[in-house]
Design goal:
Two copies of one chain form a homodimer. Chain A has 391 residues and is α/β, with parallel strands linked by helices. Helices cover 42% and strands 14% of the residues of chain A. Chain A starts with a helix and ends in a 12-residue tail after the last helix.
């Protein structure tokens, strides 16, 4: 077996889709999936000449969609860009891979948040980059800690709208500190802005990209507000780098299928996209409120909820010493899908579980919270089953 | 600008789609595109529960499609496989990239045919592999030349059905020699079987994969027999490597959009796919015959046609010393798209042009042959404009 193959097989296991049971993350179905409008519009668009079966397209994507995305991120996220800077991707995963390929070379040092999305850190490892994990506190990435550990990194991969997996936004002070570091070091910032559309209270911070468009690669995805199986997202890159992103994309797989790009462009142009987001924001807000109330009611006292005003998941902190990986396995056997967060840390300060609420009706969430409590009581791992000394 | 970015921007330029004018390659439209059956079936399948908007899927692809592909390649190409060995890709380009990632590591030596598909050699370069270009003769890759130049390569990337760009199939003797080498060296063979469905005379050789399934990664594409903008293809990998291919795919972009995978599975299951191939084989055979006759009639005597019984393009050899790159540029200004072959060689023995006939009606092909002759006469580069000594 080739040397890389074993490592890649482990990656495959980590990406195996979870069953669509509460609290799985990213399950759009029923009332949150795009409705018959999406399908009927698709049928109409595919019957048109523009979206009919066609030859190879531009690796940057369909121009009409690039325009629609540029308009959207300018308005909704204060992203500073022209349509020519938008490169359509197959989603955030591909955006991360492309950014790594274009910006960095083997052996380069990069910052990643600690904790972080495993699909991102796996890309950094696969590209043979040297990753410094930078801790996250209530304000987001601790820039001073990064400066102390590895000041001369070439790039930072961050989730400023909604830290993955903890959920807090990066404060304005930290945004400025991170950009100041990048300017001084001539480093790049890769801004994964997933979940930015789903904010339930207060005003969002502007994107990092809008604060310094020359230093930031902005990654957006349609997996959260439309559906993951569509496999569409986008990169907004500084103009001088757009051709390199296009070249990297062409090498990987040429371009995204063009039919759905035309459908999405029409969906956005006709105002259906923004209407859909308004609608699901309301649905998710209600589900979130239900889940928070259910957790308040059903969780033991030593389990606490991480505050967050955004996104499609909540984070439950377990007591010190609990085994979140074991608890997640036990829950799965009971029809509950939770993600343990300790594997997302270099060194986890505390175990925890991610609970997705996006794909489930309020009564399902309520019932699942009761079931999760039962699993906790039976499993015992939410108690301090393996006492450790503080180190 | 990051060091890789400039090189990747050059790759983007090489992948920029050509205008859809004769003799562009891979232009399915009009009577060769899948017809209203494909679209209506798509509308129907997308309205079903299975193909509705969904969450993340398996990086290996939709199981139903993997079964349909396995059935198809077993029957049509003597590929020896189970559905579990099929990994759905975004096309041959991604199949090549995945094979490089899974099988090989930086600095590994590989064989590539000379000449070869530039999108393939660009992948080998991008993965920092060391490529030995192995000459091709009338029987395909010259295995003895490869043995003399670099016996201990780790893999060979070949196009045995229809050498790209020259068009001959690899002889049975060469197939056996290549497999014997791979067995001795414990090396891999990556078999790009593009265009294998489009054979106009005689019996095809069985796939290399069918001759030794343990050594061969088989790459298939739907871009040629359906349409490129669909972005679907497949890898058939030895069973122990399937998880590694899935992991590499997950890292790159998780998986192909699932809607079209369900549509294609239904299209194959209902027999529409094979009927489509039968239909377009007839269309292409007629176009090919028209183009051959037109070239016989209109080309100067010092231009010769490379014999080939397969595929969607023909190869014209130009006289020694002609500048095929310059001639292609001059033709483009006249509304004719030809691909020069000298950039596909390490050292070209002779200049030549690829002429795609798949996307154009017989009368367009006839008229374009006349126009190409006029460009040649005016340009003068089909004559020996830059005399060189034989080296």
């Amino acid at each position: 077996m080739p040397p890389r193959a074993r490592r890649l097989a482990e990656v495959a296991a980590a990406f195996t889709p979870m069953p669509e049971m509460p609290f799985a993350i990213a399950v759009p179905g029923g009332s949150v999936a795009p409705d018959a409008n999406w399908r009927r519009l698709g049928n109409r668009v595919r019957a048109s000449r523009a979206a009919a079966p066609a030859s190879y397209g531009d690796p940057r994507g369909v121009m009409e969609l690039r325009h629609a995305i540029a308009d959207y991120v300018r308005t909704s996220r204060a992203v500073h860009c022209e349509a020519e800077q938008v490169v359509i991707t197959a989603g955030t995963q591909q955006g991360l891979y492309l950014a790594g390929r274009v910006l960095l070379s083997r052996g380069d040092h990069v910052w990643a948040e600690d904790p972080a999305y495993p699909g991102m850190t796996a890309v950094l490892d696969d590209l043979d980059l040297v990753t410094t994990r930078v801790p996250v506190d209530a304000q987001g990435i601790d820039v001073d800690a990064g400066l102390a550990a590895r000041p001369k990194a070439r790039a930072a991969f961050v989730t400023p709208s909604h830290q993955y997996p903890l959920g807090m936004p990066m404060s304005m002070a930290r945004r400025n500190a991170l950009l100041a570091w990048a300017q001084r070091q001539d480093a790049w910032i890769v801004e994964d802005d997933y979940d930015s559309e789903l904010r339930y209270a207060g005003h969002p911070f502007p994107s990092l990209q809008g604060l310094d468009p020359s230093r930031v690669i902005y990654l957006g995805t349609l997996s959260k507000v439309l559906f993951p199986s569509l496999r569409l997202g986008y990169v907004v890159a500084p103009a001088p780098l757009v051709d390199a992103f296009a070249g990297a994309r062409a090498l990987l797989d040429r371009h995204s299928p063009t039919g759905d790009q035309h459908v999405l462009a029409a969906y956005m142009r006709e105002g259906l996209f923004e209407a859909h987001i308004r609608r699901i924001r309301g649905v998710y807000a209600a589900r979130r409120a239900t889940l928070i109330a259910a957790l308040d009611h059903h969780m033991p006292r030593n389990v606490t909820l991480q505050p967050s005003d955004q996104g499609m998941h909540l984070l439950l902190w377990l007591p010190q010493g609990a085994d979140d990986v074991h608890l997640a396995k036990a829950a799965l056997a009971d029809g509950i899908v939770v993600r343990p967060i300790s594997p997302m840390y270099r060194v986890a300060p505390r175990p925890g579980l991610m609970l997705g609420f996006g794909g489930f009706a309020p009564e399902e969430l309520e019932a699942a919270a009761v079931r999760l409590r039962r699993v906790m009581d039976r499993d015992g791992s939410q108690r301090r089953t393996q006492p450790r000394r503080a180190s």
